[in-house]
Protein: ABC transporter ATP-binding protein
Organism: Oceanobacillus indicireducens
Amino acid sequence: MKAEEHLLEVKGLRKHFSDQKDGPILKAVDGVNFHVERGETLGIVGESGSGKSTIAKMIMQLEKPTEGEILFHGKNITSLTNAAKRKLQIIFQDPYGSLNPRMKAKDIVTEPFFIHEKMPKRERYEQALKLLQEVGLDKEHLNRYPHQFSGGQRQRLSIARAIALKPDLIVCDEAVSALDVSLQAQILHLLSSLQKTYGIAYIFIAHGLPAVRLISDRIAIMYKGEIVETGTRDEIFENPQHDYTKSLLAAVPPSHPRLREDG
Ligand SMILES: Nc1ncnc2c1ncn2[C@@H]1O[C@H](COP(=O)(O)OP(=O)(O)OP(=O)(O)O)[C@@H](O)[C@H]1O
């Protein structure tokens, strides 16, 4: 990576939807710029409908931008090779929607290897066990199907799958929002420890500030399709500039515990 190059750079990104031809245009994302550096976490916070998931979908090429560009390692994402694409992964709020219900955990976590490379059966088993152990699961989970896991375990399973190919960036789209607060903290700890081990960067999307505060180095605040404010975690929490950021902060309990004291 060149010194001046960001891991991910989003420039002038817009997504406008229109249900009918010549009908009203919904500006879901309307001129968004941000960047993510290697190994850091950028939180993106905003109310429901502010455009967060649409940004995630455009980064993963599930939606085509109306305008603007997204660079990963300095290259437009539309021109990435399969090998480069494997370095960009996503985790969703509801792992039920993203994990194949008919596949066992061992096959779910090693499937990414089969898409990209061949692997002998024995090695596949060992890789599956290693991946499950990395996310706090174990041998007894290898042969279980997604519905046989608890909500927190299922999210661990989707994290194991996301880290299988050692990505540089994982987009976490409301990844802990469906979990209760103590489970959220456990998953955030897991994500932080994987970040320390592998230098993974995260875009951590959430509708409220508490979870984002625990994990983010920098935070972007979204309102109606635009980023209204970006700053380090301390800048956002201690010196918010925008009225919408202030209203989000007013909803955060004052003594929320911090996961990381170093950032
Ligand atoms: N495929 C689509 N067609 C039309 N409108 C869409 C489409 N996808 C999203 N939208 C609209 O774009 C806006 C932004 O949606 P988006 O899902 O990005 O918001 P969000 O901030 O992620 O919300 P949430 O926190 O509820 O997931 C919403 O008004 C939504 O209804």
User: Anything to note?
Assistant: The chain has two domains: 1-87+168-263, 99-164. The longest strand covers residues 26-36.
